[in-house]
Amino acid sequence: MKKLIVIIFILLIIFIGMYAYRQNKITANRNSEITVDEINKIETYLQKIYMWREITGEALPTFDNINDAPDVWLWEVVKKNLEEYELSYEQLQDKAKELFGEDLQKQFPKEGYEYMEYNEETNTYYAVGSGLDNQEDVFLLDTIEKQENGYVVQIVEYLEDYSEGYETTDTEYEIQIENLKDETIGTVKNTEDETVIQQLVKDNIDKFTKKEVTLKTDTNGNIYVTSVKNI
């Protein structure tokens, strides 16, 4: 009988300890938890600044400071997010600040550039069409680390090659999934869901390039990129 009481007592202590540990663990997880809304907000922002490598050299170039970012990439991001295609200098600068925040010190070139030309008669800039290939530049969110004033996000980069679809009259064809070295990692039918592609990338993640994107948030909850590096 005494043995039974001792066993029950020991089990009770173990149970209380496990319960306390579990509660502490849940609290810790809650403190560092990233909500679905935050993930969606991060992904939406990254989609806004993720470009086309055939135009900007890299879909997302590396830089230590937003003011060190390549000019063509930066202004193409602005152009990509325009609702109109004929704008004033002030509208272009305002859109740049909206996308990159007040830390951005770069000024839109008064003379325009290759893909945004200046019209002297109307004193406005208008977007010029860009030639894109059959490869879609895509990224996949890998990890998100929440910090005091922002996030550190790791992304996986890959290409979806739709060339076969342009070369055939068939309604069903193969999409080639490639890394940035143009190496085919696998194929997925165009009739399959995007999650199938994402799973293929996850299963072969070591064959793709990854980047670490540092984002900061302002007092209004807006997100801005501050740096990007290869990992």
Describe this structure in words.
The protein is α+β, with helices and mostly antiparallel strands and 231 residues long. It has 2 domains: 52-127, no CATH class; 135-230, no CATH class. Helix content is 37%, strand content 28%. It contains 7 helices and 10 strands. The chain has helices at 2-31, 36-49, 53-56, 71-80, 89-100, 163-167, 194-203, and strands spanning 86-87, 112-113, 116-119, 124-127, 135-147, 150-161, 174-178, 184-189, 209-217, 223-230. A hairpin with a 2-residue loop joins β2 and β3.
What pattern of helices and strands is seen along the backbone?
HHHHEHEEEEEHEEHEE
The oligomeric state of the chains shown is single chain
Which overall shape is indicated by the principal axes computed on the Cα atoms? globular
Roughly how many Å is the radius of gyration? 24 Å
What percent of the residues sit in helical stretches (DSSP H or I)?
A: 25-40%
Low-confidence stretches: 1-31
How many individual helices? 7
Counting structural domains, the number is 2
Report the mean per-residue pLDDT as an integer: 87
Estimate what percentage of residues fall within beta strands: 25-35%
Which structural class is indicated by helix and strand composition?
alpha+beta
Amino-to-carboxy terminus distance: 62 Å
